Amino acid sequence: MSDDLIVLRPEGPYCPPGGFHIDPWRPVERAVITHAHADHARAGHAHYLAAAPARQVLRARLGDIALQTPAYGEATEIGGVRVSLHPAGHVLGSAQVRVEHRGRVWVASGDYKLGPDPTCAPFEPVRCDVFITESTFGLPVYRWPAAAEVFAQIDAWWRANAAAGRASVLYCYAFGKAQRILAGVDAGIGPIVCHGAVELLNEAYRASGVRLPATLHAADVTDRALLRRALVLAPPSAQGTPWLKRFGEHSDAFASGWMQLRGVRRRRALDRGFVLSDHADWPGLRQAIAASGAQRVIVTHGYVDVLVRWLAEQGLQAEAFATENAQLREEVL
Questions:
Q1: What's the helix, strand, coil split of the chain in %, to 5?
Q2: Helical H segments across the chain, by residue range
């Protein structure tokens, strides 16, 4: 519609009355960033605005950028548009973008989850007229088990491996997932060793005031006996690389929402798969959309058609945004 508060442009989602973009994928003058994952926060923008808790992770990933970081809920005027950022519960500093102009309110959710996570602020429902939602796991088959149950499974796997003298290599996304795992496992089982990509983000989390157990940088560990008892956190890209040789015989696993489907685990030739996602599952998506009170919902990056169809069946005005992010999602979420 011609008077929409957020429209798609070649650079990414754009607010015409405010003159700013949200998570643009091409360089722009002013970018409002929902969180620091690479498919949402890119280098090259002239000015960035993100929630205050995202400051350290954004600088760790993008360097010395022109960055404004208001607190959650603090309103900022941009071109006559009132913009505020509200917790999305996805990762540290993740935010929903509330845009208000002439009595109309739109919310761009970015990525979000409703489950508990001690490493970031919990999801906060924001009432609006139009809600832009992700749909990464927008199929009824995706229903997450309780996080406590998953961490108990990880602990049992790690404990058994340590008793047998095998390292436990757990693949997970370096930003967000790794830190959530660190906060959830029983660090008393043994040492925790991290790939350099994970340790970089651990430092940013600690600098942001998030409490994590002690970790060791893999490059600094030479004690073979220690490694045989360790939980090793590594990004998916480490699978099948020479980097793993330092750990000798080991058991490997993935922590991801995709592990809900057995075929994914089988194709990756894994010993174990743990269902742990930083995105909303099917019930979570429905709950968040209902809590927004929006009568118009725009669906993006994920199982778009399925969610649009279901929303239309519920009597809502539902449509899709074909964002470039859909092709640039991280391999394991």
A1: 30, 25, 45
A2: 55-62, 147-163, 177-184, 196-207, 224-227, 262-267, 282-292, 304-313
Give the pairing type, strands 317-320 and 296-302.
parallel
Gap between the Cα atoms of 243 and 232, Å rounded: 12
User: What are the distances in angstroms from CA 215 to CA 190, 195, 230?
Assistant: 10, 10, 10
The tokens of 239 are what?
Answer: 């699978």
Burial of residue 118 (CB within 10 Å: 0-12, 13-18, 19+) is middle
d(C-alpha 223, C-alpha 234), whole Å: 18
| CA dist., res. 25 & res. 12, Å (int) | 6
Copy the structure tokens of residue 246: 């330092």
CA angle 86, 258, 12 (to 5 degrees): 45
Give the model confidence (pLDDT) of 4-13 as tens digits.
Answer: 999 999 999 9
User: 111-130: per-residue pLDDT in tens?
Assistant: 999 999 999 999 999 999 99
144 touches 281 (CB < 8 A): yes
